[in-house]
Amino acid sequence: AKAGLPDPVKPKAAKAVKPVEIGSFSTVRAGAKIANLGGWFGGGDRSLPMSFTAGAALDTFLTDAHEITVGADLGYRFSPGAMRGFMLSAGAEYNLMQLVQLRAGYHYGELRGDDPSYASVGAGFRFLHLRLDFAYLFTAKHTPDIYSISFGFDF
Question: How far apart are CA 149 and CA 108, in angstroms?
Answer without folding.
Answer: 23
